[in-house]
Specification:
The protein has about 350 residues and is of the alpha/beta class. The protein folds into 3 domains: about 5-105, Nucleotidyltransferase, domain 5 (2-Layer Sandwich); about 120-205; about 220-350, no CATH class. It has helices at about 35-45, 60-70, 95-105, 120-150, 165-170, 175-205, 210-215, 220-235, 240-250, 285-300, 305-315, 320-340, 345-350; strands spanning about 5-10, 15-20, 25-35, 50-55, 75-80, 255, 260-265, 265-270, 275-280. The strands form 3 sheets. It has a 5-stranded mixed beta sheet. A two-stranded antiparallel sheet has the order 6-9. Strands 7-8 form a two-stranded antiparallel sheet. Helix 4 packs across helix 8. It is globular, with a radius of gyration of 26 Å. The protein starts with a strand and ends with a helix.
Amino acid sequence: MTNEKYVGLDVHKATIVAAVQDATGKCLITSVIETKAETIRAFIKGLSGTVRVTLEEGTHASWLSDLIRPLVTEVIVCNPRYNALLQSGNKNDKVDANKLAHLLRTGMLKPVYHEAHGTQSLKQLAQCYETLVSDNIRVMNRIKALYRGRGIDCPGTGVYCESQHKDWLAKLEEPGARSRAQLLHTQLEAVKKLRRQARNEMIKESRRHVASKLLTPVPGLGPVRVALILATIVTPFRFRTKRQLWTYVGLAVVTKTSAEYEFVGGRLHKRNKPTSTRGLNRNYNRRLKKVFKSAALDATRTEPFASYYRDLIEKGMSPEIARVNIARKLAAIVLSLWKRGEEYDRQRMKKSA
């Protein structure tokens, strides 16, 4: 019998519980090791034969997969949402590690994509930029809530302008509220500065990739959205067809049918029953769905998508569904251009639309 080993890692902040099984499912080793690079490398190197490792997606997943991959035959970072076996029966770290090894051995894991392909820096910068955008919005909401809570109307964006801070602060009679508002305005200016810096660094890093030049001219995208797409998708060859990308982005239509067949006169027939549509798929990448839906909204204002959008509305399609159609087209264009290494051709797209 081949010397194959299947390793399940139950990862925590301070320790990792590792369970090693052979090809028959026999548990060879159950060990608790420290969550440190040197300790993990030493443990993996101590295993002979063909070694396959699995761990669940989480905080340490990216770091651990990059650390272990050069030392073993295969590393699978699995989706914990599909690991129903871990929720049944007794549950502790050693049991979970053994269950993961069993799922790996029987091929019952749902993998999560974790290949880097030289985009690690871009991934980190994209995450930093999105975090700062969220922080920026959060502080803006707090500022408006402070004024509205005291009956001071603050429509528009004037309340955020640095040149108008003194005028707005003068409207607050309470010293405590005024001090709080001053601190929030100071925080907002600091976050704005950091957000611009993160944006510029992210765009600069994305331009190091050939795909950035190919995708930026696509209507509705622009340098920021292209950078986020590159950081998230990493490589277009993850998706064999555009439909697989639509599912990942959250633009796949979910349909459900039941009792499709019946016997008539002893023969099997398919019922003439309309398929019921249940909207778009709910398991998707939230960053990409936001990118493509916002890009579709901007694309409706420029050609050739503006004409295509008007045609869909005239045919009776609702604006929301029409924008989903444009978002799907944009996703298909991105996948096609990126895979083929072609530049965006506006005239060709105009004829297609």
